[in-house]
Design brief:
single chain, Leucine-rich repeat, LRR (right-handed beta-alpha superhelix), Jelly Rolls, 28 helices, 37 strands, 25% helix, globular, apoplast, secreted, Germin, Germin-like protein 3-1, manganese ion binding
Length: 908
């Protein structure tokens, strides 16, 4: 039937109809045109034949799945197309509700995302006679535990038996079983004593490792010629050697430039190398004049900085697969080409629905509906079925996928969503099928799907650079520095730096890495880590999300450009609910500055009581205040709100003097133009309403001062405002109703967990209690506790706490402590477990673990909930902006190159 014949009712009856109705969708999807007709046939007949060509296999110890081509014949590039069903489609606010209410949905998603390992009983493989299933990690672990119990009964000399093939144990599951720790053996010493010349044992270098071991790792000797005598000339020919994961504590003496003069590629990942210093290793490697490529853990035996390694080895062209020049240019301290896959994490206490919410960001896809008139305000998120979700990421992917809406009736209302899968390279039987999760940045505009520019792109520009209508072009003018969220944040940062009244704000298009660093630092320090994602170009809280999940933050970028701001987790509340005040401001002139402000504001209130329960982040009416568009709004006029607010928070009416002080909030001094003025005019004739703005703003400040206190000032300094009648500062956190206090508010387990001291250049790490996150009952009590983990030989370098005295109690190890007073007299003591020492307030002090073989742990008490900390080395060499070189050179009697060397060593 011709397209004209099908036009009467719009139904798709032929390929021509399909191509006409879906023309834009086909072009946007990127599906090769030769596959369009084959796609139509499969869509029309609902042909899901992927199961005949592919198979889903468990991997990573059952915590992930992969897709493998099982067809007998290879699959050629762009030779076929496959339909992938959508197992779950939803709008983000509805996700948790659907998981809880739709029967079987949470169970299916948990199985698909591999977050039900502790609950799942596999029945896919074979069955044991007693009815137990085999092939699952849970079942195999049960068998391992039974064997272990049997050995404990019979004695350590008895044997344990585990049939790998019958139980369906693959390599990944074998690693996950961790048999070496469950069944420790005592034959290592006997073997090494009986074979004193053994150089490699269980893939690990022994203390006797030498030229034979090096030759084995360079593939000169092996299974075919294990007894081949090694000659010096053979070692001289070695170009590449892989020493990774050999448990090497010290490199063999044979590993030297004289023995291996041709060495150009070296891999030493996964080795402790703890019997040789990093400086000595760098000195050794610098002698290999032909060394071009190096693979090493960072942080690791060569230090914590890739830049320092590249500078110490100037002949190096690639470090961990990254070009050395790009490391220097980008100032990357950490580079790693061997990252492990990110797997879902959950706790046994979490429900399946909560586990899925945390894991789904590793599987979700998204699209946004649109027609000729408008674009849908909120994106649709979806999870592909088991086949599609098993496709893992690869930078060299051999498949591509794209969402596609099939409209059998020719209308968007009847559309059915699919994901289309097709090969982009030749794929052979047994090969894993992968896709590229990441967007790429093209240098040629003609090759890009999205063009990001700051200029107007008209038809002439398109023709000049060869752009097509299928390419998307942004049109956000940079002069929108006030009305666009990302430009507003940038404007504030340029004008004011990082003021206290602006939450940490990141433009995710340009500052994703700093955000991740901030997130990880907050997580390490036990600080609150809730963030709010806001689209640049949308209002009314459309596509705005509150989350504490880093994966969610990264994936939410896909629904449009956004900023990410630290969420204000403890806001002022009205009757237990969030609120905001909306003002109308008119700027008539910049120079001189003239602002017209309406004193009559209106209040916007959330509908639900405020809470930080994880499940509440999906409740719009709890965390947002714009209710005009959801059909349920609690309106309150301004005078009534002011009266109720003052009554709830015990604030009284303010005087005319205080009103004038509040009005200073709207003034701005400018040294370049002293005749600037601020014009504030009321838009209402009602004199009683004209002071409401001043009253409510000052009330908020007075409420903060009344409800937040601490015996010690929690600010580095408080500059007096001599021009005003009163000054204000914030100290501590707001208090809950005493009747709502619970026992857990006064207890914490945060100090029971050890941290990684090796993460810092000095070999120490600190866990500090925080009323906001770990010990609410300590708020305003003027105290804090800290756990200090010290590496063997690690040190908390000279530092001070400007707002606190400290008492340090050694829990384990031997620690030298000391402080210097203002007359530069040093008081020092060696402390052992159970012994304590006091550091007076603000005195520079240190802690040093003298034991180079064992770690140490110190517990400290401080008499301020915000003691502050200034590390002397960082205060001198890591300030922002940097302290002038001349100051440092004269203060420390050093040279300019010494300044830069110290800054690099400190990670600056």
């Amino acid at each position: 039937m011709s397209p004209a014949a099908s036009a009467s009712d719009g139904r798709i009856r032929s390929y021509e109809d399909f191509a006409r109705v879906h023309a834009y969708l086909l072009a946007a999807s990127g599906i090769p045109p030769p596959l369009h007709e084959r796609l139509y046939r499969k869509l029309a007949d609902e042909v899901f034949d992927g199961g005949e060509v592919f198979a889903v296999e468990p991997c990573e110890g059952g915590r992930q799945r992969r897709l493998v081509l099982t067809a007998e014949d290879p699959l050629g590039k762009e030779s076929d197309v496959f339909l992938v069903d959508h197992a779950w489609s939803f709008r983000l606010p509805d996700a948790l509700k659907q998981l809880r209410e739709v029967p079987g949905l949470a169970e299916r998603m948990a199985g698909l995302m591999c977050v039900d390992l502790d609950r799942r009983i596999e029945t896919e493989e074979s069955y044991e006679p007693d009815g137990e299933s085999s092939g699952s990690l849970e079942h195999v672990l049960q068998i391992v535990e039974k064997e272990r119990a049997t050995i404990q009964q019979r004695g350590s000399d008895s044997a344990a038996w585990l049939e790998l093939e019958e139980l369906g144990i693959d390599d990944d599951m074998l690693v996950a079983l961790d048999l070496s720790s469950k069944f420790p053996v005592c034959i290592d010493k006997a073997v090494l004593d009986g074979l004193p010349g053994l150089e490699i044992y269980n893939s690990h270098f022994t203390s006797k490792a030498g030229e034979w071991a090096l030759s084995f790792c360079a593939d000169i000797v092996g299974a075919d010629n294990p007894c081949f005598s090694v000659e010096g000339t053979l070692l001289e020919s070695i170009v590449t050697i892989d020493l990774s994961d050999r448990c090497i504590h010290k490199l063999p003496e044979a590993f030297s430039p004289s023995k291996l003069p041709s060495l150009s590629k070296l891999n030493i990942r996964g080795n402790p190398l703890d019997q040789i210093s990093g400086d000595d290793l760098l000195k050794l490697f610098s002698g290999f004049t032909q060394l071009q490529e190096l693979e090493v853990d960072i942080p690791g035996p060569l230090g914590n900085s890739a830049i320092s390694i590249v500078e110490a080895l100037p002949n190096l062209s690639l470090l961990n697969g990254v070009n050395s020049s790009s490391i220097i240019e980008s100032e990357k301290h950490i580079v790693d080409s061997a990252l492990q896959p990110r797997l879902p994490e959950w706790s046994p206490e979490e429900s399946l629905a909560e586990r899925v919410i945390g894991a789904m960001w590793l599987y979700l896809m998204t699209y946004r509906l649109a027609d000729e008139e408008k674009i849908d305000e909120t994106p649709v998120w979806y999870v592909m079925d088991e086949l599609g979700s098993a496709m893992r990421h690869s930078d060299n992917a051999n498949f591509r996928i794209s969402p596609f809406l099939f409209m059998p009736e020719g209308k968007l209302a009847t559309a059915i969503s699919y994901t289309i899968l097709w090969p982009t390279h030749d794929v052979h039987t047994g090969e894993e099928c992968t896709r590229d999760f990441l967007f790429g940045i093209a240098t040629d505009p003609k090759e890009a799907d999205i063009i990001w520019v700051s200029m107007q792109v008209d038809s002439e520009v398109k023709n000049a650079i060869g752009l097509t209508d299928q390419q998307y072009t942004n049109q956000f003018p940079f002069e929108a520095c006030l009305v666009m969220k990302h430009h507003l944040a940038e404007t504030i940062h340029k004008a004011w730096g990082s003021p206290e009244w602006l939450q940490p704000t990141y433009n995710l298009e340009t500052h994703l890495s700093p955000l991740i660093g901030d997130y990880c630092t907050r997580k390490r320090d036990g600080m609150d880590n809730l963030w709010i994602m806001k689209p640049w170009n949308m209002a009314r809280t459309i596509d705005t999300t509150v989350t504490g999940d880093l994966s969610a933050i990264i994936r939410l970028m896909e629904t449009g450009p956004k900023i990410c701001q630290k969420y204000i987790e403890r806001p002022a509340l009205f009757q237990g609910r969030k609120f905001d005040l909306r003002y109308i401001v008119l700027v008539r002139s910049i120079r001189p500055l003239e602002i017209f402000l309406s004193d009559v504001f209106w209040v916007r209130l959330a509908n639900n009581q405020y809470t930080l329960e994880k499940t509440s982040f999906f409740e719009y009416e709890t965390h947002f205040t714009v209710m005009n568009y959801i059909g349920r709004m609690n309106h309150m006029n301004t005078p009534e709100f002011v009266k109720e607010f003052e009554k709830e928070h015990q604030v009284t009416l303010i005087t005319e003097t205080e009103q004038r002080h509040a009005s200073l909030l709207y003034s701005r001094r400018n040294s370049e133009q002293s005749n600037r003025r601020v014009a504030m005019r009321s838009s209402s004739a009602d004199r009683a309403a004209s002071s409401i703005t001043h009253r409510i703003l000052l009330s908020l400040f007075l409420f903060a001062v009344r409800s937040e206190s601490d015996p010690d000032l929690l600010l580095d300094y408080c500059v007096a405002d001599t021009a005003a009648a009163a000054s204000f500062h914030l100290n501590g956190l707001p208090c809950i109703d005493p009747a709502a206090a619970r026992t857990e508010h006064f207890a914490t387990s945060v100090l029971s967990r050890s941290t990684n001291p090796s993460a810092t250049p000095f070999g120490f790490n600190v866990t500090l209690t925080n009323p906001a996150t770990s010990l609410p009952g300590a708020n305003a009590q003027g105290l804090a506790m800290a756990r200090i983990d010290l590496d063997p030989g690690g040190m908390a370098p000279p530092h001070s706490h400007p707002r606190a005295s400290e008492v340090a109690l050694v829990l384990s190890g031997s620690v030298v402590v000391g402080f210097a007073d203002t007359s530069y007299r040093l008081y020092t003591q060696l402390l052992r477990a159970g012994e304590a020492f006091v550091f007076p307030r603000a005195m520079v002090h240190f802690l040093y673990n003298m034991d180079v073989a064992a770690p140490a742990v110190v517990l400290s008490g401080l008499n301020s909930q915000s003691p502050g900390a200034q590390l002397v080395p960082l205060s001198a060499f890591r300030t922002e902006p940097r302290m002038p070189d001349e100051v440092l050179k004269k203060a420390f009697k050093i040279h300019g190159q010494d300044v830069h060397r110290i800054q690099r060593n400190l990670g600056g």
